[in-house]
Amino acid sequence: MNAPQIILLIAGIFVIQALLWFILSRWLKVKTEALRSKMVEQYGRSKEKIIIEPKSALYRGADARFGNVKGNGVIGLTEKGLVFEKITGQRIEIDRAEIEKATVEKSFKGKTSFATGGKHLVIKTKDGNRIGFLIKDAEEWAQKINSLTKEKA
């Protein structure tokens, strides 16, 4: 191969990669919005009071019960508790009676992240389990969760 052929090959690979990443990011955005809309609709039908509207988040794992397979999804907070649903995978429901407290930490299970400013929302349950999420406004979430758990006490 000569230099122009190599340059064309590299450019072709770059274009294909960019196209694939664009398609993947659009698919992820569409699936996230559909899941968010579905959660809002479910809350509306059940007449459950929404404390924080469902929004995009990343599941970072748990010490027990929910597994460690990370994933993108949608998280919401209602008067009954916290719900996270992965785009592809499980639904995590944490009843407010199970929640001991919520904290914001720079790392979770020894892992840091640049996403969301590196702030993990960590839910600690009464059985000692910790469940981690990366989410914008982690401080607001922790404050609302903690005030919700104090209301029931």
Give a description of the structure.
- The protein is of the alpha+beta class and 153 residues long.
- The termini are far apart.
- The chain is 39% helix and 35% strand.
- The longest helix has 44 residues, at 3-46.
- The strands form 2 sheets. A 7-stranded antiparallel sheet has the order 4-3-2-1-9-8-5. The chain has a two-stranded antiparallel ribbon with strand order 6-7.
- A hairpin with a 2-residue loop joins β2 and β3.
- The model has no long low-confidence stretch (mean pLDDT 88).
- It has one domain: PH-domain like (Roll), CATH 2.30.29.30.
- The chain is elongated, with a radius of gyration of 19 Å.
- The chain has 2 helices and 9 strands, in the order αβββββββββα.
- It has helices at 3-46, 138-152; strands at 50-62, 71-78, 81-86, 91-95, 99-105, 107-108, 111-112, 120-125, 130-134.
Can you give keywords for this protein?
two-stranded antiparallel ribbon; 2 helices
Describe the secondary structure blueprint for this structure.
Elements (H helix, E strand, L loop, with lengths): L2 H44 L3 E13 L8 E8 L2 E6 L4 E5 L3 E7 L1 E2 L2 E2 L7 E6 L4 E5 L3 H15 L1
Antiparallel strand pairs: 1-2, 1-9, 2-3, 3-4, 5-8, 6-7, 8-9
Largest sheet, in brief, is: 7 strands, antiparallel
Classified in CATH, the superfamily is: Pleckstrin-homology domain (PH domain)/Phosphotyrosine-binding domain (PTB)
**Helix and strand succession?**
HEEEEEEEEEH
Number of domains: 1
**Secondary-structure content class:** alpha+beta
Task: Please compute the radius of gyration using only Cα atoms.
Answer: 19 Å
CATH class annotation: Mainly Beta
Record field, number of beta strands: 9
- Overall spatial form: elongated
Uncertain segments are none
Return the average pLDDT rounded to an integer.
88
Strand arrangement within the widest β-sheet reads 4-3-2-1-9-8-5
Distance between the termini: 73 Å
Tell me roughly what share of residues is in helical segments: 25-40%
**CATH architecture grouping:** Roll
At the fold tier of CATH, the topology name is PH-domain like
What percent strand? 35-45%
The number of helical runs is 2
